Amino acid sequence: MSDLAKRAESFLFAEGGSLTLKKLGQLLECKPEELTRALDELAEARKGSGISIIRTETEAAMVVSADSRDAVQKAYERELGKEIGEAGLEVLAIILYRGPSTRAQIDYIRGVNSGSTVRTLLSRGLLERTGNPDDSREYLYRPTVELLAHLGLTSAKELPEYATILNELSAFEASQKAEDPFNHGETPGNADIT
User: Fold this and answer.
1) What is the per-residue DSSP string for 68-90?
2) What does the pLDDT look like over 30-58, one tens digit per residue?
3) Domains defined along the chain, listed by start
């Protein structure tokens, strides 16, 4: 496989969803025709494996192949049938009360790595991931409409003691920043690549 096809595969894998061809071309710093050839090569290399490359006129994505889809779906259904647990509830509470948050911010408040918990909540459709307008290396996690509907809310502001808990979270983060001499105005943590 060419270097360009390998890098395209890496970006599609890291995204975990679809990328516009325009964005992928920018990331790879290549021309549209070079991108088309690289994606053709990648699709050919993945034939017969558990991964497929799908494309529309505007997007590309790395997905589970048709041969593996049923097995993966059954495994996910078993996994999704389980309770989200205390860690899941903590992450949901942080995002519902604090608002859109990076994984570094979630980890900081919880005091532990929340990567697998966030992935579980994403796969269950309880959280959505969007780009962070303040830092393109990070994502913001937000509650989905489905989560709010499940809770019987039209807005997170309808949560019990919303204003009080939001103020407490803000005070906690402010006090931690004030105590950390190495902090330059940001919540500690690494860039979020989940």
Assistant:
1) HHHHHHHHHHHHHTS--HHHHHH
2) 999 999 999 999 999 999 898 889 898 89
3) 3-68 (1.10.10.10), 85-179 (1.10.10.10)
Euclidean distance between CA atoms 76 and 123, whole angstroms: 9
What sign does the CA torsion over 162, 163, 166, 168 have? Answer: negative
Cβ count near 102 (within 10 Å): 23
pTM over 0.85: no
Query: What are phi and psi for residue 21, nearest 5 degrees?
Result: -65, -35
Residue 186, Cβ neighbours under 10 Å: how many?
Answer: 13
Sign of the Cα pseudo-torsion (12, 16, 22, 23, in order) = negative
User: Using the 8-state DSSP alphabet, how is residue 185 labeled?
Assistant: S
How confident is the model over 167-192, as pLDDT tens digits? 888 888 888 777 765 554 444 444 44
Residues 6+ apart with CB under 8 A from 187: 102, 104, 105, 108, 173, 176, 177
How many Å apart are CA 132 and CA 149, to the nearest integer? 25
Cβ atoms of 66 and 83 within 8 Å: the answer is no
